[in-house]
Write a structure and sequence with these properties.
single chain, about 190 residues, alpha/beta, Rossmann fold, 7-stranded mixed beta sheet, two-stranded antiparallel ribbon, globular
Length: about 190
């Protein structure tokens, strides 16, 4: 995994997804070199970059033009040869223009979470995985309910990360916001 401080970032563009969270998302996504992935709400491109180093192709989308620029810069720095198509648009529109995929990752949805999951499920290949990272309680609830409605058996992992800061008299642990990683797998 690429250390967080090696990613280019700017104010107004969230991310990168913290290194520990990226590790867990990659583990839960169970990606292979033959997989095609749709990364919705790519932000600075932390997951897009990591995915591009492991999979066949990544489609990354964000509504924020600055996010697309930052993701492109991070791709050029960390994996210039990866097969990634970046889109500045909303995910629901982009889904009309791309082929089916093996993994759907949603890090940001701009309020379109439920329709993104439902449309993504329709486009997901058999045996494909849906992974949603959530910092809001409402996102957790909507994701779990939507995955259940689609007949999936959602799994949820709540992650609390604390990093040490060395002080003169000891090490202080500073916690980050908890993140839920919610997954579901489409039947074969």
């Amino acid at each position: 995994m690429i250390p967080d401080d090696e990613f280019y970032k700017i104010k107004g563009v969230p991310g990168p997804t913290k290194e520990e969270i990226r590790c867990l998302v990659m583990c839960k996504a169970r990606v292979s070199s033959n997989d095609v992935v749709l990364d919705v709400g790519c932000g600075t491109g932390g997951l897009t970059v990591e995915l591009s180093r492991k999979v066949k192709k990544v489609y990354a989308v964000d509504k924020n033009p600055q996010a697309v620029e930052v993701t492109l810069k991070n791709l050029k720095t960390h994996n210039p040869s990866g097969d990634v198509e970046l889109f500045e648009n909303d995910a629901l529109t982009i889904m009309d223009d791309i082929p089916t995929f093996d993994v759907l990752i949603v890090g940001g949805s701009s309020g379109d979470l439920v329709p993104i999951i439902k449309k993504g499920y329709e486009m997901l290949k058999a045996g494909g995985r849906i992974i949603v990272t959530a910092i809001l309680l409402e996102t957790r609830t909507s994701t779990v309910l939507t995955l259940k409605e689609l007949g999936l058996n959602p799994e949820i992992v709540e992650v609390f990360i604390a990093r040490g800061k060395v002080l003169d008299r000891g090490t202080m642990m500073k916690g980050s916001n908890p993140v839920a990683i919610i997954t579901g797998c489409k039947s074969i």
